[in-house]
Amino acid sequence: MDLFSRIASRYENIVGSFDYEKLRDFFPVNPEEIILDLGGGTGRVAIFLKEEANDCLIFDRSFEMLQQSRNHRNDFLLVQGKSESLPFRKNSIGQIFINDTLHHVQNQEKTLNECNAILLKQGQVIIREFDRKYFWNLLLILFEKIMRFKSKFHSPKELQKLCEEINLEVYYRRPSKATFVLVGLKK
Fold first, then answer.
1. Phi, psi values for residue 17, rounded to 5°
2. C-alpha span between 122 and 91 (Å, rounded)
3. Which residues are CB-contacts of 112 (< 8 A; sequence separation ≥ 6)?
4. Please, are residues 27 and 181 in contact by the beta-carbon 8 Å criterion?
5. Does pTM top 0.70 for this prediction?
6. Of the candidates 38, 28, 42, which has an alpha carbon nearest to the alpha carbon of residue 114?
7. 32-67 burial, b if ≥16 CB within 10 A, otherwise e?
């Protein structure tokens, strides 16, 4: 059992609430499409995304984290699996949201390729991450090393390059000094 599965019932107390109102303008959610919350775990972000999009599907590696989403709503669509092999048809998802998750993924390039493969034409992947170059994030990076998460953080420009290599049209914005939101549009 991995660490996220062990702490699932306490996860939201550990990481705190998700301040969607503060970040809302940085997420170009399409209300006509279903959104895939990749690494969405307990549904702490999906509760807001479901109000903005046609529907919200939570995908996570940890069954225990997905079970916690039922504390928010009973009508989430839940799928357990690994982001390196997404179980969705090619060109079937209009939007994917990845919040504070990509740095935990061991094979980020494969995950980004999978996202690109399942996106509809003109679909978008929205990634919110911590910038490894921001000084105070060094404490987070050190903490995750101590916890043996094997996390790999990027700067916005590094992640932009990864996304452009798989042919996504990319821009990013900064809701704070510590974080960035990168949007990749499938051409």
1. -80, 165
2. 10
3. 125, 162, 163, 166
4. yes
5. yes
6. 38
7. ebbbbbbbbbbbbbbbbbbeebeebbbbbbbebbbb
Domain 3-186 of CATH type 3.30.559.10: no
* Cβ 169 vs Cβ 187: under 8 Å: yes
| Domain locations along the chain | 3-186
Per-residue model confidence as pLDDT tens for the chain (187 residues): 688 888 889 888 888 888 888 888 888 899 999 999 999 999 999 999 999 999 999 999 999 999 999 998 888 999 999 999 999 999 999 999 999 999 999 999 999 999 999 999 999 999 999 999 898 999 999 988 888 888 999 999 999 999 999 999 999 999 999 999 999 999 8
